[in-house]
Write a structure and sequence with these properties.
Layout (H helix, E strand, L loop, with lengths): L10 E5 H8 L7 E2 L10 E7 L15 E2 L24 H11 L11 H8 L1 H34 L2 H9 L4 H31 L14 H27 L3 H5 L3
Parallel strand pairs: 1-3
Antiparallel strand pairs: 1-4, 2-3
Helix pairs in contact: 4-7, 6-7
C-alpha cells in the first residue's frame, strides 16, 4: 500500500530544527504522538525537511510536522502556486483547474504573497509608523528646547566675554572657550541620553519585528543631529557677542 493512502500506517515529516531539538538530529524511524490521536505515539517519522518560516512572523521556533494530505481530513487546505508571471493573471486559470478536478470544491481567499505578507505585518507596520512619527516629534521638540537653552546660556555670558576681551583675550580664544564649555555639556548630555536609551530599549524589544532595539545608525544620527543643533545654538550668539563693542558688552545685562 502507498504510504499516503487512507488506512496505511501514519507517517509524518518534521523540520530539521525539530529533529535536532528532540532527537539529536537522528529522527528517522522515531515516533511522535498527536494530541488528537489517543494512545501511544503512532506517527512514524519518515523524513526531515529544511526549516520554513513560521506562520507567526514573531515566532522564533521552527517546529513543524507535515503529514500526507490523504491521511488527514482538515476543514480546508491551502495550496501555493509559484509562477514567473503576474500572479493576479493566473487566478481564473487556477479556479478552472480546481473546478476541472472537483466542481464541488470552492476556491476562496486567493492572495498573492505580497498581499499575504502585508496583511500579516499590518499591525507591526502601523506601530512602526506611529513610533517614527512620535519619535520625530520628540526629536524636533528636544532640538528646539536644546537650541533655546544653549542660546540663552551663551547670551548671558556676553558680559563675561566683554571682560575677557577687555583684559586682552583674543576673540577667537574667547569663542573657543565658550564652544569648549558647550561641547563638554553636549557630550555629557548625549552620553547620558544614549545610556538611558539603551537601558529603555530592552523594554520595547518585544514590540519590534526584524529590528534590533540598539540600532547604532539611529543612535548616531540622533546624537549627531543634537550635537550640531547645540553647537549652532552656541555659535550664533557667541559670534554676535564677539562683534559687540567691549564697552557695550561690559554694560550688557
Amino acid at each position: 500500500a502507498e504510504l499516503d493512502a487512507p488506512g496505511s500506517r501514519r507517517v509524518v515529516m518534521i523540520t530539521r530544527t525539530m529533529a535536532h531539538r528532540y532527537f539529536g538530529g537522528n529522527a528517522i524511524g522515531k515516533h511522535i504522538g498527536w494530541r488528537d490521536i489517543p494512545g501511544p505515539p503512532s506517527l512514524e517519522i519518515v523524513g526531515v525537511v529544511p526549516d520554513i518560516a513560521p506562520l507567526d512572523y514573531r515566532a522564533s521556533r521552527h517546529d513543524f510536522v507535515f503529514g500526507p494530505a490523504r491521511q488527514w481530513e482538515p476543514f480546508q487546505r491551502s495550496f501555493h502556486v509559484r509562477t514567473a508571471l503576474r500572479p493576479e493573471s493566473l487566478f481564473q486559470s487556477i479556479r478552472k483547474a480546481v473546478r476541472d478536478v472537483d466542481p464541488a470544491v470552492p476556491v476562496v481567499s486567493m492572495k498573492t504573497m505580497e498581499v499575504q505578507i502585508d496583511s500579516a505585518l499590518f499591525v507591526e507596520r502601523m506601530i512602526a509608523l506611529l513610533s517614527a512619527c512620535f519619535g520625530a516629534l520628540a526629536l524636533i521638540l528636544s532640538a528646539i528646547g536644546l537650541y533655546g537653552v544653549i542660546a540663552y546660556s551663551v547670551a548671558r555670558r556676553t558680559r563675561e566675554m566683554g571682560i575677557r576681551m577687555a583684559l586682552g583675550a583674543q576673540k577667537h580664544t574667547v569663542l573657543a572657550l565658550v564652544m569648549k564649555d558647550v561641547g563638554f555639556m553636549l557630550g555629557a548630555g548625549i552620553i547620558t541620553g544614549v545610556l538611558c536609551a539603551l537601558a529603555v530599549s530592552r523594554l520595547v524589544r518585544s514590540q519590534l519585528f526584524g529590528v534590533e532595539p540598539a540600532d547604532l545608525l539611529t543612535f548616531a544620527v540622533a546624537a549627531l543631529l543634537l550635537a550640531t543643533i547645540g553647537l549652532t545654538a552656541a555659535l550664533i550668539p557667541a559670534r554676535r557677542a564677539m562683534r559687540v563693542d567691549v564697552v557695550t558688552a561690559l554694560r550688557y545685562e
